[in-house]
Amino acid sequence: MSDAVAVEAVGMTMRFGAFTALDDVSIKVPAGSFHALLGENGAGKSTLVKCMMGFYTPTSGQMLVDSKEAVIRNPKDAAGFGLGMVYQHFTLVPSLTGAENLVISREDAPRVIDWRKERKALAAFMETMPFKIPLDQPVSALAAGEKQKLEIVKQLYLGRRFIVLDEPTSVLTPNEAEEMLGLVRGMTRAGALTVLMISHKFHEVTSFCDDVTVLRKGRRTGGGRIADLDRKQMAAMMIGDQPIVALDSRSETPADATPVLTVKQLKAKDRTGLKSIAIDGLEVRAGEIVGIAGISGNGQKEFLETIAGQRAREGGAVVVKDTVYDASRAQSRALNVRFIPEEPLRNACAPRMTVAENIAFRTFDLNADGKPVAWISARAIRAYATRLIEQFKVKTASLSSPIQSLSGGNVQRAVLARELTGQVDLLVVSNPCFGLDFAAVAEIRARIMKARNGGAAVLLMSEDLDELLELSDRIFVMSDGALVYETPIAQADVHVIGEHMAGH
Amino acid sequence: MADVTASDVPAPLAPPRLAAALAFTARRAEGIVIPLGALVAGMAAFSVFLLLLGKSPAQFFELMWRGGFGSWFSIQNALLRATPLLLAALCVALPARLGLTVIGGEGAIVLGGVAAAAFGHALSGLPYPVVILAMGLAAMAAGGLWIGAVGALRHYRAVNETISSLLMAYIAIALMNQLVEGPLRDPASLNKPSTHPLDAAYRIGPMPGMDVHWGLAVGIVACVACWVLIDKTRWGFAARVAGGNVRAAQIQGLAVGPLIVGFCALAGALAGLAGMFEVAAVQGSANASLAAGYGYAGILVAFLARQSPLGCIPVAFLLGGIAAAGGLIQRRMGLPDATILVLQGMLFIVVLMSDTLYGRFKIFNPDRWARA
To answer: How far is the C-alpha of A233 from the C-alpha of A222, rounded, in Å?
Structure first.
């Protein structure tokens, strides 16, 4: 096996029109090191990596591979230097086997493939790998962790000796993530590979990486050896001096709190229509947050859609405060039920309608006394939106801007403003902080905690285990369309939860 | 609000109200300037086509002006042709606000015409207002059922509404042929099978002072009413939410199904009304001439108007004028009848292409002003 390469980017600057996405950033990754690239969304991590891999032509800046100047105009050039990238989302062909995926991805794959010969060569190659993956199964049958490993193996098979991992653990269970990162670290230690990992998870960075570079707003704000830094310092480099909202302390859930949401033997088809989800015996009481953990695609989305009336129920019942809930507007109003689905711009907003109109979705058909009206009042909508925008600190150029022109954090603030105003008895939330920056995340979690302390029953579905551990009173694990495990927060163990997420 | 005198306002800064007015104007201007620009670009492309044929674009547009807009006579001609387009365009514009592309208004027009003719003949002898009202309601019911069914298929059975409305238009035409050649046929109509002619007493006449029948007024009122419905009522707001993002509408508990079926039915009813005016004011009976392509021309009108009911009024007038000039252009320039269709087609394509331009121009997007 050939040796790891050292990669260095010097003075990378990337401008898109008047916007500077990357401002004179340098990064040095010595051969055989495991380097972390930290930063919030929009800090320029992806831009830097794309410049290094030849997807973008930087406005200025230079690449050095093994201390020699390297001209990388496109990804093909990068591959020539042994640089490769593993994306956050899988790029394998699901219907083909691992072996087929590997062979067809090769630049020099022959027109007619002698599979016997290739298999033999692959077996010999896999002998040299620390990863053990079944190569004769269709990729669709592999677990997420195995797919991620296969992506890495593919890069090595293609002769890449410097690999960029873009948030590689975002779809893995904690156990899978640890195993995968451990193996990767083993390979870097052995000098077979150099790795640059984009991440925003501190615990991964501190437990596995050697060095770190931190970006903020397109600039390098710090870095160095992980051993010399603590999390607080890294966080400060990432977010600067912006104020972070503190979470309200958790008030005691009264022992006699009544269940607000009860789900009994609920059945529905999943997205493919082939499998189904079945949820039974879930209760959420007033003044508590019940978290639902699970790897993306295990039915969480369908569960929320079924409660919210977007997906047909095949059986069972959703009961809110002794009333069988049918998700009609009148009922959700009478029972004070609110939904905050994931990716709010895609699931909770009409992107081209104005900020004011989007904020009014819940109330446009009522007058000041809460009575239904036929004629809507643009003036009332604007006044209402003005008030909520101020209360929830939504940053928008104007009330009449289309909501799609807002940043992700501000779209989420606008949706929270809409859904958390007034009396809330049941709040169903899904991945509320996905893709948002630190300040927005802290603020949004604080709002959810505040709603809980105010007596709302909160059902929180999240793929971010840290978020669940921070907010929940009880955690369920959802796997393969069913709730398979329950634990009160005091006894929650990441590894046990992880095992149930993986379906053990 | 207290009055603000000029001295209260710092001179170099635009006062907030002026800035807001500017932003408002800019947002509105985008929806007018881009379609107009597309219209000009489409006509320029058509000029190239004329030059390739060895004809003079200048003469073409001069004749178009004379035949469609240059005199009271030609304006009336344009308005006459615009009348069915108004209602046909609403049949596209209303579902479009819910995110549906319905292109089968022709079917609703045809069936509306047949229903009106059947009722007009059957109720012969009753007072004029009763008969006219019955004809109108029958036409609206027929058209409403037809396009309402398209909406129901879309929402409850997930059938693509564009395809189903188009196919249902063919079924409607076949149904009309079946009816006018069978049960509803007037035995006296020999060459061209038709329904019994409407008694002269029940014909809809011209509006005072002009040769254009009352359908024009009804069409304009319908456009204004649809604008009010969409922009000012809670049902219109709910429809815009559902059209903007059906998932967001569902999660707010809005009744998406009834909204879709209701708006489609209303759209079909208006197209059916167009068919009724064709029978009661123009043809005098229902026959194959009802399928004259107004339903398809209405698609062009609605898209040019960017699915705005108010925008449909000037656009229908413009296209009515172009159509009105068709005969003159044909005679004077020796161009075939289909030339107008080529022009319409080119305009349509350019307008569809111009859709990608929205949001690209900084001058129309106040959100981007501050960042400069």
So the answer is: 9
Domain count, chain A: 3
Altogether, the residues listed in chain B come to a count of 372
> CA B259 to CA B275: how far, in whole Å?
24
Q: What is the ipTM of this complex?
A: 0.85
**Which CATH number characterizes residue A331's domain?**
3.40.50.300
CB contact under 8 A, A310 and B250: yes
Residue A461: how many other CB atoms lie within 10 Å: 23
Out of A388, A403, A422, a domain closes at A422
Distances (CA, A) of A210 to A43, A196, A223, B28: 21, 10, 11, 56
- Between A329, A372, A398, which is nearest B366 by CB? A398
Expressed as residue numbers, the domain containing A400 is 349-422
pLDDT tens per residue, chain A (504 residues)?
458 899 999 999 998 877 788 999 999 999 999 999 998 877 888 889 999 999 999 999 999 999 999 999 998 899 999 999 998 778 889 899 999 999 988 888 888 888 899 889 999 988 888 888 888 889 888 877 788 889 989 998 998 999 999 888 877 788 888 888 998 999 999 998 999 999 878 888 999 999 999 998 889 999 999 999 988 888 888 877 766 677 777 888 777 888 999 999 999 988 777 788 999 989 999 999 999 998 877 888 899 999 998 888 998 999 999 999 999 999 999 999 999 998 899 999 999 999 999 999 999 999 888 888 999 999 999 999 999 999 998 988 889 889 998 888 899 999 999 999 999 999 999 999 887 777 788 888 999 999 999 999 999 999 888 899 999 999 999 998 999 999 999 998 888 998 898 876
Tell me which chain A residues have a C-beta less than 8 angstroms from the C-beta of B27.
400
User: What Rg do the C-alpha atoms of chain B give, in angstroms?
Assistant: 23
In degrees and rounded to multiples of 5, residue A171 shows phi and psi of -110, 15
**Chain B interface with A: residues with Cβ < 8 Å:** 20, 23-24, 27, 232-234, 236-238, 240-241, 243-245, 247-255, 365-367, 370-372
Shortest Cα distance from B168 to chain A (angstroms)? 28
Cβ neighbours around A409 below 10 Å, total: 23
Closest residue of chain B to A336, computed from CA coordinates: B252
Residues A211, A330: one domain? no
Residue A344 domain-assigned (yes or no)? no
Chain A hits for B20, CB-CB cut-off 8 Å, are 398
**Residue B34 lies inside a defined structural domain of this protein:** no
Asked whether the beta carbons of residue A346 and residue B245 sit closer than 8 angstroms, the reply is: yes
CB-based burial, B161-188: b 16+ in 10 Å, e otherwise: bbebbbebbeebbebbbebbeeebebee
Question: Is the Cβ pair A350, B237 closer than 8 Å?
Answer: no
Residue at A319: amino acid letter: V
Burial class (CB in 10 A: 0-12, 13-18, 19+), B204: buried
Helix axis angle for B57-68 and B326-333, nearest 10°, is 140
Closest by CA position to A423, among listed A293, A286, A323, A296: A286
Q: List beta partners, residue A279.
A: A266
Q: How far is A349 from chain B (nearest CA, A)?
A: 5
Q: Judge contact between B83 and B90, C-beta under 8 A.
A: no
